[in-house]
Write a structure and sequence with these properties.
Blueprint lengths: L15 H17 L14 E2 L10 E5 L5 E5 L2 H14 L6 H9 L7 H10 L20 H11 L5 H7 E5 L5 H13 L6 E2 L2 E2 L7 H7 L10
Length: about 220
Amino acid sequence: MGRAKIARKSTSIDMTAMCDVAFLLLSFFIMATKQKPPEVLAVQPPNSVSSKAAPDKSILITLTKDGRTFLTLGDDTKKADILADINKTKALNLSDADLQRWNKQEFIGAPLGQIKSMLESGKDLNPATLPGIPTDSTNNEMIDWVKSITNTYAGSDQKDLEKMLLVKGDNDVKYPVFRQIKEAFKKNEIYKFRIVTNGEAPPAGSELAKSIAAGTGGDENNK
């Protein structure tokens, strides 16, 4: 006896719900993605073969080719505490309103003595016109900034803080400027930080190229 044949019918699938979910997920990732923060000023750092990615929450010191120094406090959860600490330790006499305005600035690029008047002026702080943080041998205010940073992160693992400390200098920066940044770290007992460079491929046939190809390479780019 033959099998009974089942009539074939066209299949119709309603994709409306799936499309709704896809658009909701897309909207979530667009809004939740943290965009790369704008640079204070364009600098051309030296090249290196390191491929280590910088952490999202970074404390970046930028050295421009004309010798100016800027600071970016990328960890928004600690930024207000750092500003409050340096306001207290250096007696800047900033009001709560001043601190709130300061917290909205993406970078710091002026001597501490000028901060209050700049904030009260209400003007946008254009990095092209700012003098930068003093870092010379007679007045190295980066020491004070690093001190407030270490005060704020006190009690946490210092290795975690060291991973967040980045120095990005233009390829034409003179060594004495970089040396004063190292001195600021040293004065606060920080002996490890990272240097931001432009990545490039390692020389063909080198040990680093072989280890990267094998999936075991890549240095820490710690200096």
